[in-house]
Amino acid sequence: MKTKFEAEKIATAAGTAMLITSGKCMNPIVAIDKGKRGSFFTANEKPVNTWKKWIFCHLDPSGVLTVDQGAIKAFEVGKSLLATGVVAVVGMFDRGDTVAIVDENGIEIARGLINYGADEAKIIIGCKNEEIEYILGNGVCSVVMHRNDMVLRCL
Q1: Which pTM value belongs to this model?
Q2: Percent of the chain with pLDDT over 70
Q3: Burial of 24 (0-12, 13-18, 19+ CB in 10 A)
Q4: Taking each helix axis from N to C terminus, what angle separates 2-13 and 50-58, rounded to the nearest 10 degrees?
């Protein structure tokens, strides 16, 4: 059942309605039309673009970032992930790899392409933007993960 609901999240986020019903009977769609039970999920009114669909559906995370509630609130209003919101880094990954973003309970809330390798990300946990430049040097990106390279699960 878990995989059915994961498929539902992917389909509806992509702007496609979905119906889950038993396939044990002949002609399950006809059976639904005649009143047989099923679960219908409406399409998201604002479907995820192709780039974000590719990130979410085709790339397995190489690492995990745990974020605080402040970062989660920022995501809800369309903000990017800054180092100040990161509380833990797990895994081995390079800049540009896919990482999962989880809340402090370990629940995945987003996935995206990171702007730092694992070693750098561990050094800048909780840092403010101006501190990152001092720690890592000039010309570094202040955003750990840009909003355009991040896909949120349903919050």
Answers
A1: 0.66
A2: 87
A3: exposed
A4: 160
